[in-house]
Design a protein that fits this description.
By secondary structure, the chain is mostly helical. The chain has 6 helices and 2 strands; from the N terminus they run H-H-E-H-H-E-H-H. The chain has a two-stranded antiparallel sheet with strand order 1-2. Helix 2 crosses helix 5, helix 2 crosses helix 6 and helix 3 crosses helix 4. It starts with a helix and ends with a helix. Bound molecules: calcium ion (2 copies). One calcium ion (CA) binds next to strand 2.
Length: 121
């Protein structure tokens, strides 16, 4: 039984790696956007430092310095320094893209997400 579980986990891991290696830029932006939407609890399309803190605190790999690190990370992602992380700042931090491509791809990811949400209602 345990071997089967392990095989399953391995297969899932390989599949994820394969997905990432083969995924189009748009698929990656979609995936990153999903994470953004998860962190953005109040759905105002911005990640506040409070939202980021609770996301950071819930990370399974947190350590003693985690809180301080989280603050530093937030500052790094918040490129324009206005105290909130917007969708484009978040996606471009994980995946550097030229400005025009970034805007178009984030918009497409957003539209996809909105469609999925609408389908669930
Ligand atoms: Ca928010
Ligand atoms: Ca910002």
């Amino acid at each position: 039984m345990s071997k089967k579980t392990w095989d399953g986990a391995l297969a899932a891991g390989l599949l994820l790696g394969q997905f990432w290696a083969m995924a189009s830029d748009q698929a990656k932006v979609d995936a990153n956007y999903d994470v953004f939407a998860t962190i953005d609890k109040n759905n105002d399309t911005l990640i506040s430092s409070t939202e980021f803190d609770s996301y950071w605190a819930a990370r399974p790999d947190k350590e003693a310095t985690a809180k301080k690190e989280g603050k530093a990370q937030f500052k790094k992602i918040d490129k324009n320094g206005d105290g909130v992380i917007d969708e484009e700042e978040y996606v471009v931090y994980l995946m550097p893209l030229p400005d025009d491509e970034l805007k178009a791809k984030v918009a497409a990811a957003k539209a996809k997400k909105a469609k999925e949400k609408a389908a669930k209602l």
